[in-house]
Design a protein that fits this description.
Length: 56
């Protein structure tokens, strides 16, 4: 994920985030949604999206 400071929006920092969910189903739904995101050019939005223990 990318975030930038309000006073410097041109500088971006990339980081890893730990998300917690109420259920495995909710986590799977978000993961599938993130995998499907595309840029305006049609490329994948997240190039390093990795799931360790999916419940598909």
């Amino acid at each position: 994920m990318k975030w930038s400071r309000e006073n410097n929006p041109n500088r971006a920092d990339w980081g890893r985030h730990l998300l917690t969910f109420e259920s495995r189903w909710a986590a799977d739904e978000l993961f599938r949604g993130l995998q499907g995101l595309k840029t305006a050019a049609g490329a994948n939005r997240f190039t390093m999206l990795k799931r360790v223990n999916p419940q598909f």
